[in-house]
Amino acid sequence: xxxxxxxxxxxxxxxxxxxxxxxxxxxxxxxxxxxxxxxxxxxxxxxxxxxxxxxxxxxxxxxxxxxxxxxxxxxxxxxxxxxxxxxxxxxxxxxxxx
Length: 98
Known about the structure:
GO terms for molecular function: ATP binding. It contains 2 helices and 4 strands. By secondary structure, the protein is an alpha+beta fold. It has a single domain, classed as Methyltransferase, Cobalt-precorrin-4 Transmethylase, Domain 2 (2-Layer Sandwich), CATH 3.30.950.30. A hairpin with a 2-residue loop joins strand 3 and strand 4.
């Protein structure tokens, strides 16, 4: 599955992806996969279980919203799925709306 308006693939987690989460929350929602390349092929991430706990907390603390984070363990490697629902109120990231 290719990237689209509501699907984004990232090989590793970076806190700057909170901007993507903010944008999805302000639009129609979306999903970010961490541990996949731009074509959706699983690359795997080594700290998946740690991120499974950290990402929801960062999103809550920085953006004030809740997201679902799911861990998938495959033979190619572990990856995360971050599901962002659309929010009725505008969400900002460090004072900016994405």
